[in-house]
Design a protein that fits this description.
Elements: H1 22-41, H2 53-66, H3 73-84, H4 87-106, H5 110-121, H6 127-142, H7 145-163, H8 167-184, H9 189-198, H10 202-228, H11 247-258, H12 262-279, H13 285-297, H14 300-319, H15 321-332, H16 336-354, H17 357-375, H18 379-396, H19 401-412, H20 419-422, H21 427-441
Length: 461
């Protein structure tokens, strides 16, 4: 009978050298310590996000360059160049830029229109459920949980104050919905990073993720309804809305689900968005060009981080660090199911340390890719695990951007809410974790048959 234990398919050309992992340790310690100092000692607002993450990665890169003295600096430059020039990295950078230009073109004001439309046509006792559903849709269309939370949290505060619903529940409903879309959107940083890092199509990762996320979202919606339907509602929230600007988002969403090339979909979104924004007098042509530039520049830090991480990982791989790390993982996590859990814990640990799910995925990608080949997990399943687990952790971190932005938005409106008041109401991320574990341990999947490195896969799930 064939053993269920995975065969190690990771290349053993490099010796096992745990010291080669030092750059990752330097980055994590430095970033985490600075984050704690900024956030909790110096009390700097959004402390973790005031740390120049590019500078910290440059320090880690210098550490990586100082190691492995058997190689000349020119040889190390060549290794870094190969790492940054991999097709998946180049494609990731181009998609980041296109997605940034798209968001800059269409703006984010239409998100409020969706919320106010639904609040105006649905009875007030369903208002909290509406907040969750709207946040799901808006983040799915916009590809950003932070942007969704920024836009919808003030509406959630208004709903809570005018209707009498619990404020932490309203804010948590927005956060949960925002993470639902962030996890699934075709233009989300996390989706782009996970799919390109694992070499899978976005539509395949979307379908894999939807099976996990949709049940969690439906149960969350049921819990919200159960908690709010019998509430004593005292009022409703209304405002003006204009839905024409939603058309480009719908084009991108439908095109992505249909499997159209992501560059073509984003180009259609940019062109349609430009026409609508100018025709509706929402912006001037010169201002539109400026908005496109702003949208692209908003991706620059993410792009630089992706390139630096690729360079660092190339040096670590050359020095044998990944061999040492993977040997430890294989000794701890045996079998396909435990291997998938190991991937989830890996990216979760990265996210706890960086408080940034995109950075966590980029850092975990090369290690998870090698794990996937060993444990015979398909690229789309691996991308789904990385994105899902990172979203779970990111949503519940008290010092995560999503939590800090939500609390800051409430504070600006005169309401002081603690993260620990919101966390117990974050039904969606906890249910998403349960759903992920169910699909890992209870839902049977066939082993994915990889070819040799560099060859086309032989088959799959």
């Amino acid at each position: 009978m064939k053993s269920n234990e995975p065969e190690h398919t990771y290349s053993t050309d490099q010796p096992s050298n745990p010291w080669a992992l030092l750059p990752i340790g330097v980055f994590l310690v430095l970033y985490l310590c600075l984050g704690i100092l900024f956030e909790y000692v110096l009390a700097i607002p959004m402390g973790f996000y005031n740390i120049p993450i590019v500078v910290v990665f440059l320090v880690a890169l210098l550490v990586a360059c100082a190691q492995n003295r058997s190689l000349s600096f020119d040889a190390k430059l060549a290794i870094m160049g190969r790492g940054m020039g991999e097709p998946t990295i180049v494609t990731m950078v181009l998609i980041f830029l296109a997605a940034g230009i798209f968001v800059g073109t269409v703006g984010r004001e239409s998100a409020e229109s969706v919320a106010y439309l639904m609040l105006s046509i649905i009875p007030p006792r369903f208002a909290v459920a509406v907040l969750f559903v709207v946040s799901c849709f808006v983040s799915l269309a916009m590809g950003t949980s932070v942007g969704t939370i920024t836009l919808i949290t003030p509406i959630a505060v208004a709903v809570a104050t005018t209707s009498g619903f619990d404020m932490p529940l309203c804010i948590a409903s927005v956060m949960g919905g925002a993470m639902f879309g962030d996890n699934l959107s075709f233009i989300s940083d996390t989706t782009i990073a996970a799919c390109q890092g694992q070499g899978c199509d976005m539509k395949d990762k979307f379908r894999e993720n939807l099976k996990i996320a949709l049940p969690a979202a439906l149960v969350t919606l049921g819990l919200i309804l159960a908690l709010t339907l019998n509430a004593d509602v005292s009022g409703a929230t209304y405002d003006s809305y204009d839905l024409i600007q939603l058309v480009p988002y719908l084009i991108v969403l439908v095109g992505g689900i249909a499997g159209i090339n992501v560059f073509l979909v984003l180009l259609l979104g940019i062109v349609s968005g430009s026409i609508i924004m100018i025709a509706s007098a929402a912006t001037e042509p010169t201002a539109l060009l400026g908005a496109m530039g702003t949208g692209a520049s908003g991706m620059f830090e993410t792009i630089i981080v992706a390139l630096l991480v690729s360079a660092i990982c190339a040096l670590i791989r050359e020095g044998g660090g990944f061999t040492a790390l993977l040997n430890g993982i294989y000794a701890l996590f045996r079998g396909r199911k435990m291997g998938q859990l190991g991937m989830g814990l890996l990216v979760s640990a990265m996210d706890v340390a960086t408080a940034n799910n995109t950075v966590a995925i980029v850092m975990a990608n090369p290690i998870a890719s090698s794990m996937a080949r060993t444990y015979q997990v398909s690229p789309r399943k691996t991308a789904s695990i990385l994105d899902t687990f990172s979203c779970v952790v990111q949503c519940i971190l008290p010092y995560g951007a999503q939590m800090l932005v939500a609390l800051s938005a409430a504070a600006e409106l005169g309401y002081s809410i603690s993260a620990f008041q919101v966390i117990p109401n974050l039904f969606y991320p906890f249910l998403l974790l349960i759903s992920s574990l169910v699909f890992i341990f209870l839902v049977p999947t066939k082993p994915y048959a990889y070819g040799k490195v560099g060859e086309i896969e032989q088959g799959g799930e």
